[in-house]
Amino acid sequence: MTVRPARQGTSGDLIASIAGRVPLRNLHSQVLWLLGVSIVGGTYPEGSILPSDAELLQRFEVSRTVLREALKTLAAKGMIEARARIGTRVLPRQRWNLFDADVLAWHFETGPDAAFLRSLSEIRIGVELESAALAATRRTDEQATALMACARRMGEAASAEEFARADLEFHRTVAEASGNPFMASISTLVELALTAAFTISSPINDPVAMAVNVQTHTSIAKAILAGDAETARTAMKAVITEGLNRQLNTPMVAKG
Questions:
Q1: Contacts of 218 (CB under 8 A, 6+ apart)
Q2: What is the pTM of this model?
Q3: Which has the higher per-residue pLDDT, 182 or 73?
Q4: Rounded CA separation 173/178 (Å)
């Protein structure tokens, strides 16, 4: 199986597009993608030994250097480990860096299950509620104005991607407005979860869901503008919970 034609239409491409990044198109990124999806999807399950280098080279039709770099990248993400005289073993899922952009994209490419989505939402609740509360007491006038503008753009969005970009900017601005550099750094992890979620579900085609989503984001912005930390927390939790419920009702999500 050659990987020379650039991959198109993957979750990774959409995540990169929404987040404003340019997806890589070189052979290394394509081999990495195919191996990552194969591991996350269970073709190479946890504890199994990957095919030999010779087999993988034949499959991907790339140089040994390209293959080795892809394997090194997977190892750095905590997904595989090479051992002398044994081979390259797929490590337990608990060792994987689930906040890595590629690892998240591979989960969404193979179809995340309900438990995975709930875990993502729990992380967001753990981080973003406090971020919104801090923003209510520390935001600048410019940041408060920017949040209202983001909510307005969400309501005016004509496409799922346009909506997602405005939503992503909203949550970035909340993190920045918290005034906590650690919170802003953690928000990068939240950003990955948020952008990945848009690959399976968006309220853009449901007028009722769209109105509710815009209203709850507007409520967050208004609470932050008013300096009301508790209302900001409550509204942020409503946004995250609504997003999870929408994802769980998507046919592609395994309910088990």
A1: 148, 151
A2: 0.79
A3: 73
A4: 9
